[in-house]
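Z., the sequence and structure:
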Amino acid sequence: MTRFGGYSRSAGRCHFVDRIIGNLYRDDFDVVLAPRPCPRSRCDCFIGYAHLEHLGLRAVYGSGLIERIPRDS
């Protein structure tokens, strides 16, 4: 089975978690998109935590948030 695309259209939480949560064509989206806790003990994915407002990263990176380019660069 191919994850995150390919021909199977399987979807997962992120590339750090191997568990498949559903199939884009076969499963009910309400079930696939239901809130669920992350199985990892900590998140070290920048894309995952970059959007948490309480971290204030947008103030540091501005429009370069995802690329991690500070405003003053």
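The mean pLDDT is 81. The beta strands are 10-12, 20-23.

Let me know what you think.
H.
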